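Journal club prep — side note

Before the paper discussion, L.F. wants everyone to see what a predicted structure for a comparable chain looks like in token form. Sequence:
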Amino acid sequence: MPDKGILLVNLGTPETPESADVGSFLTEFLSDPRVVDLPRWFWIPLLKLVIMPLRKGRTASAYKKIWLDGGSPLQVYSDALASGLRQQLGGQATVRLAMRYGNPDLQSELESMRNEGVEELIVLPLYPQYSVTTTESVFDAVTAALRVLDWQPVTHLVKQYHDNPGWVHSIASSVRNFRLQHGKAEKLLFSMHGLPQRLVEAGDPYEQQCRQSVAAVADVLDMQEDCLLTYQSRVGREPWLQPYTDEVIRKLGESGVEHIQVISPGFSVDCLETLEEIAIRYRELFISAGGKKLEYIPALNDSDAHVSVLASVVEPYLESQD
């Protein structure tokens, strides 16, 4: 067995689209202090007694609209992506997939890697852009799990790959190929997941990396004037990164723009935020505001290009003799 192991980590997903499973998943997710940094004594009772009873049913309904025969899209595509990387790397490394929240859980996957003889661990969160709310939360969980397992492999934590040339060109190719098939829209939106503004002001590099990613892709496509960077999925009342995707979409529809296309390169695979929020709800919003066509450009998912990107990201660690 190879002594090097790659642990891919994605956000996670409910086991089923039923309300109870969605509630369990959301409770675990929103209990993470990296995600919601309010005082625990205040937030946890509020989450369990007020927010979850109101939210889990609506979210379950949203999941049911996008659920695949094989399960959650995020789970299906992440599994296939891990399988593709495993196949491409051959015997160079053990490849496993874990979820930060839900299953397969981090500790169990790490325990299996330990039992398989892995001595050098490469942790790759499937978030191209780094944020303390996502990437750093994965690193927290890995550190805690290794401590519980009393396992000290040589560990490499991959912080981001937002400027990886292969990733940039794969996103650009995705846009180009979509437009060859469906035509060019009047506007292209790069919709990234939102983040509270105060976290950026405190030093989180996420916004800067989002800008760098979009600028790099736009440069490859030679279309800087046609694209917009926006932020989706905000919650609560505090200011998040702006402009907000839904507000931009509504204003475009009201201003007479008839055709827009949206891509979300911050998501490694398609999930609730892309397939339901953008492709369903935001399309309805655009049409109700006067627009005619909103097209969602899929994530890289388990494409050969995406597998090759991840292989290029971990390649320096596989070559390392440390």
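L.F.'s comment for the group: The two ends are 18 Å apart (CA to CA). Keep this in mind when we get to the figures.
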